[in-house]
Write a structure and sequence with these properties.
Length: 293
């Protein structure tokens, strides 16, 4: 089994597969290239009634994917063995979810699959963004350390920015119909601490650059179509600033707790004041009775 698995929450707009799911039309014929164990295909079949052909190099994953795909071909996608095995020859969507960065020549595969698109068909692609703020800061420090998973996954052979990928797509005859991203930002305080630790003076322009849309993009998601188009639909919403939203929620929670404590203290003071008044009244009555004796 491969190391790649995903929990798909369709309510999470910052999830790469959710973004791809939104672009898939109902009852589509899908070619899922690098389908892994079929966890995404399961959702596509159940929620959108898709017919799916999967291609997967890992035999165990392919076996699992057979539960959800109409056909699974075990093959290296950069070979040509899989093409003659296809039971469906035209697809509404061809999906490359976090796959192209693992290939030696991704541009050649993009060019090859063009003939399998139906009229009005599209290619849905997600790629990690090598220009993410975390990588920029790491390179600034002189580091470039491979990881088990993530942007610097130790099995990645290619690295992309948004523009470099779009250039490759155009070279092989595709244009972007739609572009979106999943995001993860760094708090400004953390960036300032990181840069200051290297003896660098932190300017407002640098912080703005490292919190820009392109800097916080963890992954880009594209819908590609053959030819040229006059307009590319960008994200309908602004990038999701995950860390910022988390810190804001913590701050809001703290404020709510403080307000609740203030109300409780006010209530206790009022209660204490009432009790003190009652106690004073009782003592005065007792004192008056004693004085009458």
């Amino acid at each position: 089994m491969s190391k790649y698995k995903a929990n798909l929450n369709l309510k999470d707009k910052n999830n790469t597969l959710t973004n791809i799911f939104i672009r898939v039309k109902k009852n589509s014929k899908i070619l899922d290239v690098g389908c892994a164990s079929g966890y995404f295909d399961k959702v596509l079949k159940e929620k959108k009634g898709c017919s799916i052909v999967g291609i997967e190099i890992d035999k165990e994953d392919a076996k699992e994917a057979e539960k959800y795909c109409d056909q699974v071909i075990v093959a290296d996608v950069e070979s040509q063995d899989w093409e003659r095995k296809l039971t469906i020859k035209k697809f509404n969507h061809i999906i490359f979810a976090d796959l192209l960065e693992h290939l030696r020549e991704p541009e050649k595969l993009l060019e090859r699959v063009k003939k399998y698109l139906s009229n009005q068909g599209s290619i849905l692609v997600s790629i990690p963004n090598i220009a993410h703020v975390s990588i920029r800061l790491e390179l600034l420090k002189g580091d470039f350390i491979p990881e088990e998973t993530g942007i610097l996954d130790n099995t990645h052979l290619k690295y992309f920015t948004k523009d470099s990928f779009l250039n490759i797509a155009k070279q092989v005859g595709f244009d972007a119909k739609w572009v979106s991203q999943s995001s993860f930002d760094f708090p400004k305080e953390q960036i300032e601490k990181y840069l200051s630790g290297m003896g660098l003076k932190v300017k407002r322009e640098a912080l703005e650059n490292l919190n820009s849309s392109d800097a916080v993009a963890l992954q880009y998601i594209f819908e590609l179509v053959p030819g040229e188009i006059s307009k590319t639909d960008k994200m309908e919403e602004k990038p999701i600033y995950v860390a910022r939203q988390f810190l804001e929620s913590v701050e809001k929670e703290k404020k709510n707790e403080i307000e609740a404590l203030k109300k409780e203290i006010k209530h206790l003071r009022e209660e204490a004041s009432r009790n003190q008044g009652l106690l004073t009244y009782k003592l005065e009555r007792k004192l008056r009775r004693l004085l009458k004796k």
